[in-house]
Design brief:
The structure is a single chain. The chain has two domains: 31 residues; 91 residues, Gamma-B Crystallin, domain 1, CATH 2.60.20. By secondary structure, it is of the alpha+beta class. The protein has a four-stranded antiparallel beta sheet with strand order 3-9-6-7, with no helix packed on it. A three-stranded antiparallel beta sheet has the order 2-1-5, with no helix packed on it. About 4% of the residues have low confidence. The chain contains one helix and nine strands; from the N terminus they run αβββββββββ. A hairpin with an 8-residue loop joins strand 6 and strand 7. 12% of the residues are buried. Keywords: Signal.
């Protein structure tokens, strides 16, 4: 009888720890998002060359803001929010087909080196919502 009570207590402790992990992971994702979106667009690879600082004020009501680029050469990009999609366009109003699209950390290649320069006139940013897994979807 005492073994069953101890086993039940142990299982309840495990369940509460798992629930705490899920809650803390969602809190950590919210803490990783910056208060203000910042992006630097460089004319040369590896964050070199002329830089254009792009800012989005907190609370701005835009769903997909668009900025015209000062230089048509884009060599590298630095962002402070991993949950964004960055799209570059040949037109100056972010319309038409995208030339190139980056998703958050994809702007920083694994090797740390940029090798290509794209030609674009405008850039737009779309926020991506992080996907939180349900407890039943997690694999440990």
């Amino acid at each position: 009888q005492m073994k069953h009570i101890f086993l039940l207590f142990f299982i309840l402790c495990l369940v509460s720890v798992q629930a705490g992990r899920i809650y803390s992971s969602s809190v950590n994702i919210q803490l990783q998002r910056p208060r203000q979106f910042l992006m630097d667009v460089y004319t040369r690879p590896n964050r070199k060359g002329l830089v254009q600082h792009v800012r989005l004020e907190p609370g701005t009501a835009f769903t997909r803001p668009c900025w015209n680029l000062q230089s048509k050469h884009v060599g590298s990009v630095a962002i402070n929010d991993p949950f964004v999609k960055i799209s570059f366009y040949r037109t100056s109003d972010c319309s038409g087909f995208t030339i190139n699209t980056f998703h958050g950390p994809d702007t920083l290649p694994a090797g740390g080196k940029y090798t290509s320069i794209i030609k674009a006139k405008s850039v737009s940013v779309t926020r991506i919502r992080p996907i939180l897994l349900r407890d039943t979807d997690r694999f440990y």
